[in-house]
Write a sequence for this structure.
DNA sequence: CGAATTTCTATTGTATACAAGTTGTATTTT
DNA sequence: AAAATACAACTTGTATACAATAGAAATTCG
């Protein structure tokens, strides 16, 4: 690729997006315009446009007079996330099964290959990004402009919550990863078969696996709790 | 208000937002930076920032090298809208009932007063804007960052579809407006009573009323169809 | 010694000049 | 006459200089 301004802009966009998704940039942290401006070879004008674009997608928050910071994760975040995710994920996968084009299914396969590779060889960040991309594609398949804004917003924090909570502390958690991968395969199959009900069912299962993983962090070792004050919520 | 840049920026934002919601600006139409720049007394830099912000919220689309245009309404728009709206509206009103603060309930009452006034004295645009504001407040009450992006996106096209399809051609349609107003009152009551189930039920009713209104346009006079090829979908 | 106010500095926000790219038109060539 | 290409006018995109504002530091006064 030639080194055009447009490409440097895209590079900045990708850098910020991946850094935020993988928690390389902490939620709530400030972004320095001057810094990024010099390191990416952009003047502040296009830089700020990237900020606004990312803010529109939910990666950043712009505070008047105080510039841009990474979208925060408050105590209500996880609760709000648990409320919204099952509903949206189900709807997206259902629509994906109905609308996916052959070309998109190919893309999804490729993404899943990358995810599998990341499982074997990559670190947590690589896994999170590959998984994120897989689900982004299901969003593209669904193609409903009214659902996508929320879906993409959910994917951001799904990646970040995953990065926060996932530590392969025991065999069960490591096993979850291969289970997730298997579910991805099943999702691809359901989409290819245009089986919306199966896709919705898989969305639910996939979501529950994710949820269990998060809960497992809250109580990673049931018989060995250092503080003993964290009851597992098994609703 | 003093005439600061900040205020002129806000004025531009409001102007574009209301113009888009009321169809004063047609979907898909181009926006001329130079024009707006001079008429709002802003240089192109803050102007373009407003564009990006509105694009992030779904009012505008930015095409590289071709500037900003009003978000389009394609043939898939209505179908996608009908799929997404019932689900999101129900979830939002349910959460609104659970989370609304007394202050927000006051705001909702004020918005509803304005809507009632617009019913009596205003034109279609005034009604659409007042109704839009009412529902925006329910979104603020719900306060779930993951659902709001889709909800606000839906509100944009709900206003626009309403403006497109609503013409008080018969008594039934005019009656729908007072029915909608009554439902607003019931929604306020349900929220104040913290009755999430009632709120969700009302969301469904309110949605169905809206839907019927749109369908009525498709078939405004059931017994008097000039072309006779448009079966009413009464699913 | 502490609180408040003023000054200074760093960072964000805006304007304008300039560059790059796009579109439409006209001319030329086949 | 039709098509293609080159050119010109206009629109969008970027850089930089300048203005405004928020936060920090220091000084002054109670």
């Amino acid at each position: 690729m030639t080194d055009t301004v447009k490409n440097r802009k895209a590079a900045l966009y990708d850098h910020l997006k991946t850094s935020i998704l993988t928690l390389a940039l902490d939620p709530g942290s400030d972004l320095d315009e001057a810094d990024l401006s010099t390191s990416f070879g952009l003047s502040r004008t296009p830089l700020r446009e990237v900020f606004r674009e990312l803010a529109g997608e939910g990666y950043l928050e712009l505070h008047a007079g105080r510039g841009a910071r990474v979208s925060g994760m408050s105590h209500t975040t996880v609760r709000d996330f648990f409320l919204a995710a099952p509903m949206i994920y189900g709807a997206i996968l259902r629509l994906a099964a109905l609308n996916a084009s052959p070309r998109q299914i190919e893309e999804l396969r490729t993404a899943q290959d990358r995810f599998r590779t990341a499982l074997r060889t990559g670190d947590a960040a690589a896994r999170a990004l590959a998984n994120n991309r897989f689900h982004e594609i299901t969003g593209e398949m669904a193609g409903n402009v009214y659902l996508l804004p929320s879906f993409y917003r959910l994917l951001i924090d799904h990646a970040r919550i995953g990065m926060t909570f996932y530590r392969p502390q025991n065999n069960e958690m490591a096993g979850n990863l291969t289970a997730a991968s298997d579910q991805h395969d099943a999702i691809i199959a359901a989409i290819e078969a245009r089986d919306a009900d199966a896709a919705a069912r898989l969305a639910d299962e996939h979501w529950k696996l994710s949820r269990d993983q998060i809960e497992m962090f809250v109580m990673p070792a049931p018989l060995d709790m250092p503080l003993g004050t964290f009851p597992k919520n098994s609703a």
